[in-house]
Design goal:
Helix 1 packs parallel to helix 11, helix 2 packs parallel to helix 15 and helix 7 packs across helix 12. This protein has 15 helices and 13 strands. The strands form 4 sheets. Strands 2-1-7-8-9 form a 5-stranded parallel β-sheet. A 4-stranded parallel β-sheet has the order 4-3-5-6, with helices on both faces. Strands 10-13 form a two-stranded antiparallel sheet. By secondary structure, the chain is of the alpha/beta class. Bound molecules: iron/sulfur cluster (SF4). The site of iron/sulfur cluster has 14 residues, from helix 14.
């Protein structure tokens, strides 16, 4: 398959891994953060850690939108829907994320009208097909998914569909990277830049990371060879004492981003003054809310927002794992109280969560080896 097979060619992968070993200074320890949860999954899925020298440490970043959402926002969405008797819609990976009184699926089991949708447009269609009911869409994601929510809102407005609203939990990636770099307990040598978000925002917004912070960043694709090539590009920069933004994922990511998507986002959304991130606290200008011209379709304006603040269970260390301070198995609950079947934190639920990735690809493997 074009754009897949050639990026999984074992011979080329072997040569690239050899190049990494040649470039890595054995006297140095490298900490490279992969910002995107999709990269974390690819790293575990393809066993890439096994081909890297031990002095290259991959640190998982905050690029999983379901994982960074604090429990209070899930509870806010569910209680607004429950109190108003609306149809609650969300993507499938939200459905098992625990809130203080249960996940959306548990609310459904208790009788609330909860439905999985594959896109915000599906939620809008549901509203059009059920004019006597109100449909709320729980919107989540970085700049990757925000344009489709914005387009759906524009369509709802143009068609005059008034029994539809959006509870916006869209977040933006740059302030999160800034918060990581400002964190005193964090030492990162370079970043593997997020591939999906960059298809929308492009590479230019990362330039300050190289210029002001002196850290290389390489926007990467998701195949094994993409990630290994990105590590080669980072090591070359570090070896030459350089720090710049490079684009390994040119076949998908335009340097200037997707102007049409950025335009529609700017038309519908504005930055919130601040927003709470799980484990990272309040980060200024890090999330999107609907502009006043879309107030009629804004769930926070239409319904009474409880503004709940719920702390994670005491022993859960999701925040530390999200910031890259701890690895998933270092959480006290990992693999015992917290498993994909019975998740305590969102990182064990989401398809982009680092705990789920580690559990599915590393933990199960080690259990299988230990079993005989
Ligand atoms: S194992 Fe569970 S509780 Fe611990 S960090 Fe991961 S998701 Fe959170």
């Amino acid at each position: 398959m074009q754009f897949v097979d050639e990026f999984r060619d074992p011979e080329v992968i072997g040569r690239t891994a050899e190049e990494i070993r040649r470039l890595a200074d054995p006297a140095r320890h490298y900490r490279l953060m992969e910002v995107c949860g999709g990269h974390t999954h690819a790293i575990y899925r393809f066993g890439l850690k096994d081909v890297l020298p031990p002095n290259i440490e991959l640190v998982h970043g905050p690029g999983c939108p379901v994982c960074v959402l604090p429990m209070g926002r899930i509870d806010d969405g569910l209680s607004m829907a429950e109190n108003s008797g609306v149809i609650f819609t969300a993507f499938g990976d939200m459905m098992r994320v625990p809130g203080a009184k249960g996940s959306p699926l548990e609310y459904k089991a208790r009788g609330m009208d909860v439905r999985i949708v594959y896109s915000p447009a599906d939620a809008l269609k549901l509203a059009q097909n059920n004019p006597e009911r109100h449909v709320m869409f729980f919107a989540i994601g970085f700049e990757t998914t925000a344009p489709s929510t914005a387009l759906t809102l524009k369509r709802a407005k143009a068609l005059g569909v008034r029994n539809f609203s959006v509870f916006s939990n869209h977040v933006t990636i740059i302030p999160a990277i800034r918060a990581i770099l400002d964190s005193p307990d964090m030492r990162i040598d370079a970043f593997i830049g997020p591939g999906h978000v960059s298809t929308v925002i492009g590479c230019r917004p990362y330039e300050w990371i190289a210029k002001d912070q002196g850290k290389p960043i390489v926007v990467s694709g998701f195949e094994p060879l993409d990630l290994l090539q990105s590590i080669v590009m980072i090591l070359r920069q570090l070896k030459q004492g350089e720090a710049k933004v490079e684009n390994q994922y040119k076949r998908v990511v335009p340097w200037e981003g997707n102007r049409a998507a950025l335009r529609v986002m700017a038309e519908v959304f504005e930055l919130r003054p601040y927003f709470e991130w799980r484990g990272m606290g309040f980060i200024s200008q890090s999330a999107l809310r609907l502009r006043p011209s879309y107030a009629e379709w804004d769930a926070e304006q239409r319904f009474s927002l409880p503004g709940l603040r719920v702390t994670d269970p005491k022993a859960a260390q999701c925040g530390e794992v999200l910031k890259g301070v701890l690895k998933p198995p270092q959480c006290k609950l990992f693999g015992r109280e917290c498993t994909p079947e019975r998740p305590v934190g969102a990182l064990m639920v989401s398809s982009e969560g680092s705990c789920a990735a580690y559990y599915n690809y590393e933990h199960r493997k080690s259990c299988a080896v230990a079993a005989p």
